[in-house]
Structure formats: C-alpha cells, structure tokens
C-alpha cells in the first residue's frame, strides 16, 4: 500500500475470504491495472486455497493487466494458470523486475489526490466505490491517534482487522505518528506455541501476543471482547503481566456495559478502554476516546474534535463515489434524507451528563453481524443468480433484540409455485452464500415465508420486518402496499422467541 501511494496510484483491498461475486461487483467498477493476491488463506488452523476463485474473478475484470502472487508455499507451486491472457508472476519475479540501485522517490500531487477506494455495504445494489483523499485521511487519522488516543513515538499498535475494513487503513496511518505496527493474519483464538509448528485453539492468544510483543495499544471488535467475557478468560491469573498495555480500542458494534466492567476487571484500572464509532464513508471516527476524560460504562467518551456530531429525530464534500455518476450517487446516499446534512444512518443517543455517546445500532437495511457491515442486496444477488428456479422472492434483515450486542442475520424466502424449503436446500443456500460472498455473509436462519412486504413504489420493506423480529414496535404500515403480511413475521418472531426461552 505504501509503495502504491508513493507513486500516486490508488489503493484498494479485499479480504482473502471474499467470494467471486463480491470481488467482481467491486473490482469491475474501479478497473484495477495490477492485483496482488495471496495464494492461500489460513484461519482456525485451516488453510483454504484462494487462487482458483481469484483467477475466476479476474476473467471478468477487463482492465486488469497483471497479477502478483504472494505465496505461502514454494513459489514453484503457484505457476501461472494455462490459457490465461493475464500476466501472472510470483512476488520474487515481481521484485526481480526492479533495480536495487533505484532511489526511492515520492511523487508530489495536490493535497486531496485520491489515495484509497473503499466500498459501501451494497444495500441498494452494487457496493458504492468511496474515494478518500490523501491529506483529509491523514489529518483525521493523526488527530485521532495523537490527540484522541495519546499515541506517542515508540508505542506499539495492534488492531485485529481485515485489510478490507477501514480500521486497517486507520492503523497503517499511525506510522505517521512514530508508532510501530503489529500485523496479524489468522484467527484471534489460535496461538502457535514455542517449539510447535501447528497453531492450537487458545482464547488467550491475543493477551499472549500483547505480552510477547509488548503491545501498548490493542484494537479489536466488541464481539471479540464479549467472547472473552463469555469464556471467562482471565489472562493475569495464568501468569501474563500485560504491563505494556496502555489502551484497548473496541469498534464494529456497540460494546455492552457489562463488557466494559469485564475489561477493566481483567486488564486493570490503569488502561483506557476506548469504544469508538465511525464509518467507511468518512474513513474516520466521530465518536472517540479522550485521554483526559473519564470512561463511563457503555458509552463512547466524546465526539471527535472538529466533527459536528448530532443526534436527530426521524423528522428531523470531501468524499465522492468512483465513476461518472459518483457525486450524484453520493448525494442521494447521504444527503437526501436531511438536505445539506450528511446522514450516517446509525441510531445514537447523547448522555448530556457525561457528554458520551450511546450507539444503538443501524437505522437502515445494512446488516452488521459481529461488526461486519454488508448489504442485503449482495444476498439477493446470490439468490437470483443461483436459485431463481425455486426461490420466488426473499428478504434479508438483521435481528437484534433488547440487551443483545450482536446482530443475527435472518433470510426469509418465498418459494416458487409448489416448491418447499427443505433442510437440504437451506444448507445449499448457506454454502453458496459462503462460496460467493464470504463466511460472514451466511444467514444464521433461512426461513420460508408466504409473502414479502413491499412499498407502493415496489421497494422491499426491510426496516419494518427488522423491527418486528427484534421486538420493536412498527409505528406505521401506511407506506406498505401489502401490510397485512407483517402479521406472519410477528407470529414467527413470537414463536422463535418462545423456542429460545425453552
């Protein structure tokens, strides 16, 4: 990434578990010239081949000229695929094309020259390609690192993140503050013990990493911390000292008050627990930590410096999208609801007594299981492409009941004619979503329903169903053409809740 930006080229990234459809939906819009890829991905001590799906996706990216393969195995095993017009080379071959005597130089461009392309969740179609400029990104990140997080030269920062999440870009920028980065590949619950070649399951893997590498600032998801809490992990009781640790950062989803208390109980009262919130759209945070303010359980400490953050009722340009219609798409996505005001789309509440912020979850159709944002349209596209002969329609929403910190993805399907949703078909749908998108996209529940609710202008009604199955009252059904069908979703939600209680 640093080499790319030094040339004035634009960087974008997808995580290794991204499926073919999801890759093509993103990369076909931005037309990349060169692609760097792993040949395998390792997670939970299991290795998965990446090259076959990457090669299949590249056949649909017409602008691509070359692919460089970073191999986890002997590079002779990563030979070019036959009959491919795309130039493939190993990383060693790529490096051999350069000259050791070549002096490193940094091209000079206007301050807001594009540096990154990130992607929206794809709720209303193909993911939008969000362009971020160099100086705006760097200033935001340095502000958050130095002023909001008290990061100093010589500190060591680790953030458990995929390269596709904005937090990867956020933590790379910390190099500008004189910090040392710790990068990690794999599951946070596996650890390779000294003298062993294979990793083993270990819920103390990350605390051990903190001790081993003397990490000072540790970033992760709220889900990770809640898993530690559920497993009653207590690192210090097993001999870890964690004396280097100054701060823990949590984002991706709201951090429960009980998890605040757990973190301070096991990591000590001297650390700063920074629950933060921001977004891909701004590649920065608007709710941040503050080193000179107290931490209150369940709250983000303060709004970010220089950010006009407000909570509005239901009534109540440094970013663009790639492409000729990018600016119009950007305005429609973020300025349409409240003209002249950028609308993020999260429910929040300010605590007037402390100045802190409570994050209450998404207010639109974006799905957010375990802090991973994606759009329902990606699921719909997979069903349309693979199950049009048996699935007539579908509705994909998130379920998050009161006091729950994580979201469950539920997929409702209306079957075609006399077809029925069998257990075998459910497994096939889940496997196809896994293969074409990613493991994180797979719905926990796939349920047959009699009808899908629509508005009068023929849009699927996701928010009302999400509210119903999450136990929240729907205030009005006036805009729903077939509002009578919501009664079925209410019955399903009630039945499901009764089953869970049993």
UniProtKB/TrEMBL annotation:
Which InterPro entries does this UniProt record tie to the protein? Acac_CoA_synth, AMP-bd_C_sf, AMP-binding_CS, AMP-dep_synth/lig_dom, ANL_N_sf
Q: Please give the Pfam families that the UniProt record associates with this protein.
A: AMP-binding
Q: What keywords is this UniProt entry annotated with? A: ATP-binding, Ligase, Nucleotide-binding
Q: Does the keyword Ligase apply?
A: yes
Family assignment? Belongs to the ATP-dependent AMP-binding enzyme family.
Q: NCBIfam families from the xrefs?
A: ac_ac_CoA_syn
The protein's name in its UniProt record: AMP-dependent synthetase/ligase domain-containing protein
What species was this sequence derived from? Zasmidium cellare (Wine cellar mold)
Q: What is the lineage of its organism?
A: Eukaryota, Fungi, Dikarya, Ascomycota, Pezizomycotina
């Amino acid at each position: 990434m640093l080499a790319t930006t030094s040339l004035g080229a634009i960087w974008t990234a997808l995580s290794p578990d991204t499926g073919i459809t999801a890759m093509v939906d993103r990369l076909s819009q931005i037309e990349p010239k060169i692609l760097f890829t792993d040949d395998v991905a390792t997670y939970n001590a299991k290795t998965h081949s990446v090259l076959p799906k990457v090669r299949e996706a590249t056949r649909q990216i017409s602008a691509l000229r070359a692919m460089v393969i970073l191999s986890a195995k002997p590079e002779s095993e990563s030979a070019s695929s036959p009959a491919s017009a795309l130039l493939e080379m190993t990383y060693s071959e790529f490096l051999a094309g350069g000259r050791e005597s070549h002096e490193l130089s940094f091209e000079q461009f206007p301050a807001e020259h594009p540096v990154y392309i990130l992607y929206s969740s794809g709720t209303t179609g193909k993911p939008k390609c969000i362009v971020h400029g160099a100086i705006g990104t760097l200033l935001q990140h340095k502000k958050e690192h130095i002023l909001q997080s008290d990061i100093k030269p010589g500190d060591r920062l680790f953030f458990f993140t995929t390269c596709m999440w904005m937090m990867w870009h956020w933590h790379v920028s910390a190099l500008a503050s004189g910090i040392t980065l710790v990068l990690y590949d794999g599951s946070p619950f596996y650890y390779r013990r000294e003298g062993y070649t294979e990793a083993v399951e270990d819920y103390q893997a990350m605390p051990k990493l903190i001790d081993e590498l003397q990490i000072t600032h540790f970033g992760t998801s709220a889900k990770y911390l809640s898993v530690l809490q559920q497993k009653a992990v207590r690192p210090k009781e097993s001999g870890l000292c964690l004396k280097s640790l100054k701060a823990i950062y949590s984002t991706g989803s709201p951090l429960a008050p009980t998890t605040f208390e757990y973190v301070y109980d096991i990591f000590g009262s001297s650390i700063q627990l920074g629950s933060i919130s921001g977004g891909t759209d701004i590649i920065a945070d608007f709710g941040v930590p503050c080193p000179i303010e107290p931490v209150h359980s369940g709250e983000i400490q303060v709004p970010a410096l220089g950010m006009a953050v407000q909570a509005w009722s239901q009534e109540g340009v440094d970013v663009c999208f790639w492409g000729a219609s990018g600016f119009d798409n950007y305005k429609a996505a973020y300025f349409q609801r409240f003209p002249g005001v950028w609308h993020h789309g999260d429910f929040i509440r300010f605590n007037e007594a402390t100045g802190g912020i409570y994050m209450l979850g998404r207010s639109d159709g974006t799905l957010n299981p375990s802090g991973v944002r994606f759009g329902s349209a990606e699921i719909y596209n997979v069903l349309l492409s693979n199950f049009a002969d048996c699935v007539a329609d579908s509705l994909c929403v998130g379920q998050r009941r009161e006091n729950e910190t994580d979201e469950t993805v539920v997929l409702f399907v209306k079957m075609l004619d006399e077809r029925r949703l069998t257990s075998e078909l459910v497994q096939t749908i889940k496997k196809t979503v896994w293969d074409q998108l990613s493991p994180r996209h797979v719905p926990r529940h796939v349920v047959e329903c009699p009808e899908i609710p629509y508005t009068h202008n023929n849009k699927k009604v996701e928010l009302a169903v999400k509210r119903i199955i999450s136990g929240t009252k729907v205030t009005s059904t006036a805009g729903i053409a077939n509002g009578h069908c919501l009664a079925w979703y209410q019955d399903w939600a009630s039945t499901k809740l009764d089953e869970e209680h049993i």
